[in-house]
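Thread title: Can someone regenerate the structure for this chain?

I was given the following input by a collaborator and told the matching structure tokens would be attached. They weren't. Posting the sequence so someone can regenerate them.
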Amino acid sequence: MQSPLIQVQELFKSYQRDSLEIPVLRNINLEIAQGEFIAFMGPSGSGKTTLLNLIAGLDKPTSGNILIDGVDVAALNETELAMWRSRNVGFIFQFYNLIPVLTALENVELPLILTPLSKLERRAHAELALGVVGLADRLHHYPRQLSGGQEQRVAIARAVATDPVILVADEPTGDLDKISAEEVLELMDRLNRELNKTILMVTHDPRAAERARSVRHLEKGELA
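Best answer:
Regenerated them for you:
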């Protein structure tokens, strides 16, 4: 039987504030298969985004292991972690974080600068990614010339352009109207079904969670 793509083992995370230690996650154990689309739900402050950031290598645990495709991410130093993230993780946030002075195409090309691809190859990858999200006719538009839903689709194209192992999405529909949110969720569903992308999503939106194959709830730093 195939090993899980992601294995989280006895994970603890706390933050130090002056002399006070504030626990955020307690004894998290989790296995996620390749091609899974999982939604994490729970009240504010339950540790959802912290868990997402730890799996994505944006933060380090206080203790425990995070094995992704056989690599213990928690054991990597900052330089190794930055390189690992650039090759393995695509990020989708609530706020699109597009650079306003760059076109859609240039925004999507940006993470590819860290790869060995030539300029022509980077351009081809970016055009392909924008085609996948249905924006082949908006390559040279600036963020201000796009709707919120289109901006989020550019952000998704940027996330998939490097062909990452996992996509992490933190409230990807939180800043969108109902119609745009549905379009973005449909796109994420397609990325999961057709391209077999493993997607980890934090959401408060039950409609977004319905698109996931499984839902896990966090309560006071523990998985229910």
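The domain at 6-223 is CATH 3.40.50.300 (Rossmann fold).
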